[in-house]
Write a structure and sequence with these properties.
The protein is an alpha/beta fold. Helix content is 36%, strand content 17%.
Length: 556
Amino acid sequence: MSAAAWAQRLWAAANLRRWRRFRAALGDPGRCQRRLLLATLRANAETAFGRRHRFAGIATVEDFRRRVPLVRYDELTPWLDRIRRGEPAVLTRDRVLLLTPSGGSTAAAKLVPFTRALQAEFQRAIGPWVVDLFRRHPGLARGCAYWSLSPAAEPAGSEPEPGAVPVGFADDTAYLAGLFRRLVGRTLAVPAAVSRLADVESFRYATLLHLLRARDLALVSVWHPSFWTLLLEPLARHWERLLEDLAAGTLTPPAANENGGDAAPAPDPDPARAAELRRLGPGSPAAIWPRLAVISCWADGHAAGAAADLAGRFPGVAVEPKGLVATEAFVSLPFAGGRPVAVTSHFFEFLDDAGRPHAVDELTAGGEYSVVVTTGGGLYRYRLGDRVRVEGFSAATPCLRFLGREDRVSDRRGEKLAEGHVAAVLERLLGDADAGVRFAMLAPDDAGLGGGYTLYLESKRPPRDGLAADLERALAANPHYRWCVRLGQLAPARVFRVDGGAHHVYLEHRRRAGQRLGDVKPAALSPESGWSRRFTGRYQPSAAEPAATAAAATEC
C-alpha cells in the first residue's frame, strides 16, 4: 500500500471522534448550538468587542440577540483595522494568526480573521465529512487525492509592517492543524507549492505533470465543477512534453513563469509510468486514473448544470455535491446523503424574509433564509450574504441547498436585480434536465438594441422558443425592473447562446480581475457588461427582435 493510502486511512481514523460527535448532535441541534454559543461568548468576554457588548452577562440566545446587532462586513472594518495593526484581544482572546482574503464576487477582497479556534471549528466539519465520504466510498482509502489548488492571483507582496498581522495562507492546507495538516500533505497528488506559480499556464502544466504520475488518484476535490475540466484542457496539447518531463523527473512548462517559477518541485522520474501513459494516450481520463472514484464539487444553484456536465464526462465516477463553505464559516457539509448544517462548528441564525432570526431547530422544510454566523474567528451575528433553502432533515437538523448571494445586485437604471431572485428565475426556467444546461448567467448588456439584460446560455439543445419572453415576465416580478423597462430605460431581456467554453471564459476573466481560480464562485447574475464580446455565440431571435437583427448584434 502506498504512503498516500496509509495517510488517507490514518486521517479518516483520526476524525472518527468528530464524526461520532457530529452524528449525535444531529438529533438535538438546538442544545448543541446553545452550548457552542455560550462557550464562544465566555471565551471572548474580555475582548474589546466583548466588553462593549457585555458578553459576560449573556446567558441565553435572546440576551445575545438583544445585546449584539446583526452586522455586515463594512461595519466590522474599524475592528479589523485594529487587528491588522497588531492590537491583541480586539474580537477574540485567541491570537489572530493571519487575515484570510475572502473569495467574493469581485476583486476587492474581504479580510477575515483566522484563529486557532476558527481552525478547530473548520476541522469539526471537515472531519465528519471525510469519515462519511470514506465510509460510503471505501476505495478512496487505497489512493491519493487532488485538493483544489489555485495559482497565485498576483506575485507575492512585500513583508507586513513590524507588529502587523500577515494576510493570506501560504497554502490551503493551513485550514488544518498539526497532525492533520501533515497527514493531508502526504495524501496529495500535487504538492501545495504548485500554487505559488503565478503564471496560469505554468500552473496548469505543473499540476498535470504531478497528476499524471499519480496512477492511484482516487479523490478530486475542487470548488466549481469546471475548474477540473479547465485543468485537463491542455492535456492533449502538451502530452509529449509532459511524458518527457515525467520520464526524466523534470519540470519544463512551455510558458515562462516570471513569479516563483522555481517554487514548484518536479515529480520524481518515472519512466515506467510515462511508457504506460504513452500507450494509453490523452483521450481517456478513466484509463489514465483507473482508481478515480469521487469528484467533490459545487452542484447547487448556478453550478448544477456544470456538475451534470462533469458527470457525463466521467462515467462511473461519483460527482458528489459539496456543502456550503465560505472563508468565514463552514455552513453545511455532505453527510449520510444530505447536507446538514455544521451544528458542531459555529453558532447559526437564519433570517426569514421579514428579517426575523430563527435558530437551527426552528427552521421549516421548504423555507428560504439568509445565513448569519457567529464564529471563533471573531465574527458575531455576521450576515454571510448566502441565501439557502431547507430541503429535508438529517435526524432533527435541517439540510440546506445554496440558492445564491443576496449581496450581488445589478443596478444600472434603478432596477435593483438581486442574484437570489435571478437564481430562482433561472432554476425555474432552465430546470429541465434534458436541456443539458452547462452555463447560465444574466448580465447587463449594452450591445445591439441598447441597454438591457441578456441571459448567456450554454446548453446541449438550442434555447426553446419563447425563453426570452418567459425570462422577461419572470424578471418583471421585481417592480423596480418592471418600471425601468416600461419607461424605456432598459430593453427587454434577450438570450445569447454561447457556442462552448463559457465556464472557462468566465473563470479566466475573474482570474484576470484578481481572483484565484479556486475562489471564483458560480454566479447567476453578473453586474458587469461586455460578455457578448467575451463569449463566442449569437443572440437568439425573439418576437421583438427579428433574426437578422439578432445576428447583426453579435458584431457589436
